């Protein structure tokens, strides 16, 4: 059902995406943008109804995989940052008793978190939204398992007892007027409750009108220990060790948010951390530190670049230049859909900007690299770019596609030809294999195969092509990307286990396509790029859409 519903929708969305890249006047561009936003809303509704139908039919299966607890929370926070820009303080806190890595259904836990955090952001006009994860020791757990409790607290509009009774009822919202004001189907919380129940947990809410709400859910997870998790923890300890040399790194945190101060204090535990709530207080402390041991970093939590630049000028203007080596880290909430967790150098000397909330490993790594560049030599961090011109300069070659739907095939051709690529299109796996055999090895730089096709589908075509490559002893294998409107984790794993190198869910977004093509931007693919294909994995479709409520 997912494939049948999403395939025609994907073509419609993709054609709008192409149209938005053409020359339009302001009125036309606004119409196209509104149509795209309406498509994204419709996609959320389709996905919610599909999930609800599976849950009602007991057809939804959990798929377990290991993940870092910080990553699942930070992933959700970063996706919701543009919604909270300039009005909310978003932060999270992971208690010390929470294991760094666990094993559970990452996608479904993230779906619940996205719904709960998204609702908190949506219904909170000002103030804060804080996510906390702790081990729930009140609930018994068998050996090798632990109960994790996620709490989402906001300073939003709050709920009455009558509202709370309706919250988890399908197609209902606490206040019918909220549907008109904020949109949504009223399925998000019902789905969240059923998902938590399916995972063996419980969900609840406490709320007060005009004060805010606290949603929470508890689920059992398995403890996880592997080379990957041990390596991640070793990296963390390595950065912490570097920051203790030759003496503990000193950090001054400036933030009006107690949640942000708590988050940074936890992340920087073991270092010499001082916190103040204003720049004026910081100036007084800095004046008193002139003759003290050097201050390594100042972390400023502010939405104002002007305030950050002003503080940097103050640091470098103190008589005797005692803070000449002090670096200013300006953390802020981005106001656009820019990527999070990245650092950028600014025109103001000594100022580095970083989106919030930061991840612990990234923050410690950045501080360690800045303080001891001889230990961790790196290039200057720069912001990622989505400039199409960069893609034109780096990508060349021929692309083989297999897509049975004529509209979807035509759309894919148009999307690829926008980048001056030569496209050879086929309608099934048999035709795609015939085209591959008709050309010299290395002729195609990348192949895009639809998962569902008649005669020979994408999975079967990939398996057969890998056999042919082995028989011919081709020096470089062809990168194959799976395309599918069926975005279940099991579908992705089926494609990857067949020998495909990456998976893209429909509708294809321009940014995802650019990332993919850039990753395979040389022809033919080198052995080194083949070994690093894990970095090519693109976000699942639900990472790119906002939550339902």
From TrEMBL:
Entry annotated with the keyword Transport: no
Which residues are recorded with the post-translational modification 4-aspartylphosphate? 450
Extract the signal peptide range. none
Q: Tell me the GO molecular function terms.
A: phosphorelay sensor kinase activity
Keyword Phosphoprotein listed: yes
Q: Where is the Histidine kinase domain?
A: 1-223
* Positions of the UniProt region annotated as Disordered: 523-549
Response regulatory domain ranges (all copies): 398-521
Pfam (any one): Response_reg
Q: Which SMART domains match?
A: HATPase_c, HisKA, REC
Recite the UniProt keywords alphabetically: Phosphoprotein, Two-component regulatory system
Q: Write down the superkingdom of origin.
A: Eukaryota
Q: Which stretches are transmembrane?
A: none
Task: Give residue spans, biased composition: Basic and acidic residues.
Answer: 528-549
Name the UniProt record assigns to this protein: Histidine kinase
Q: Which organism is it from?
A: Steccherinum ochraceum
């Amino acid at each position: 059902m997912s494939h049948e519903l999403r395939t025609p929708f994907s073509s419609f969305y993709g054609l709008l995406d192409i149209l938005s890249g053409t020359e339009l006047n302001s009125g036309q561009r606004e119409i196209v943008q509104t149509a795209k936003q309406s498509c994204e809303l419709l996609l959320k509704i389709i996905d919610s109804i599909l999930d609800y139908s599976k849950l009602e039919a007991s057809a939804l299966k959990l798929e377990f995989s290991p993940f870092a607890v910080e990553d699942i929370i930070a992933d959700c926070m970063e996706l919701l940052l543009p919604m909270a820009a300039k009005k909310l303080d978003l932060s999270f806190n992971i208690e010390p008793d929470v294991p760094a890595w666990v094993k559970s259904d990452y996608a479904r836990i993230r779906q619940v978190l996205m719904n709960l955090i998204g609702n908190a952001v949506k219904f909170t006009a000002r103030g804060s939204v804080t996510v906390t994860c702790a081990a729930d020791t009140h609930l018994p757990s068998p050996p090798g398992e632990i109960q994790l409790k996620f709490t989402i607290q906001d300073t939003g509009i709050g709920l009455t007892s009558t509202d709370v009774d309706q919250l988890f009822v399908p197609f209902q919202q606490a206040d019918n007027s909220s549907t008109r004001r904020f949109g949504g189907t009223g399925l998000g919380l019902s789905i969240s409750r059923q998902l938590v129940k399916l995972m063996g947990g419980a969900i609840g809410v406490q709320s007060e009108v005009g004060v805010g709400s606290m949603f929470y859910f508890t689920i059992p997870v398995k403890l996880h220990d592997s080379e990957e998790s041990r390596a991640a923890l070793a990296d963390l300890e390595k950065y912490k060790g570097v920051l203790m040399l030759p003496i503990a790194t000193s950090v001054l945190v400036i933030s009006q948010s107690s949640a942000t101060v708590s988050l940074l204090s936890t992340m920087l535990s073991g270092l010499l951390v001082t916190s103040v709530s204003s720049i004026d207080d910081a100036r007084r402390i800095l004046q008193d530190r002139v003759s003290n041991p050097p201050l390594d970093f100042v972390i400023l939590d502010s939405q104002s670049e002007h305030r950050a630049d002003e503080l940097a000028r103050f640091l470098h203007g103190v008589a005797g230049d005692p803070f000449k080596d002090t670096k200013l880290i300006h953390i802020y909430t981005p106001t656009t859909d820019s990527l999070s967790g990245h650092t950028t150098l600014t025109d103001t000397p000594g100022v580095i900007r970083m989106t919030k909330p930061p991840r612990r490993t990234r923050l410690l790594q950045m501080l360690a690299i800045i303080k001891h560049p001889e230990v961790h030599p790196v290039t200057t961090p720069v912001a990622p770019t989505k400039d199409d011109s960069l893609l034109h300069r780096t990508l060349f070659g021929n692309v083989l596609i297999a897509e049975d739907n004529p509209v979807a095939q035509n759309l894919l051709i148009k999307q690829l030809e926008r980048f001056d690529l030569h496209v050879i299109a086929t309608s099934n796996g048999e035709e795609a294999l015939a085209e591959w055999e008709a050309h010299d090895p290395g002729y195609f730089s990348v192949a895009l195969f639809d998962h569902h096709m008649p005669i020979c589908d994408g999975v079967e075509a990939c398996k057969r092509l890998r056999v042919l490559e082995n028989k011919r002893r081709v020096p470089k294998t062809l990168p194959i990307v799976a395309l599918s409107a069926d975005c279940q984790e099991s579908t992705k794993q089926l494609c990857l286990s067949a020998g495909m190198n990456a998976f893209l869910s429909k509708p294809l977004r321009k940014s995802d396509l650019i990332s993919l093509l850039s990753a395979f931007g040389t022809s033919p693919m080198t052995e080194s790029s083949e070994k690093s294909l894990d970095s090519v994995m693109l976000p699942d479709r639900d990472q790119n859409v906002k939550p339902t409520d």
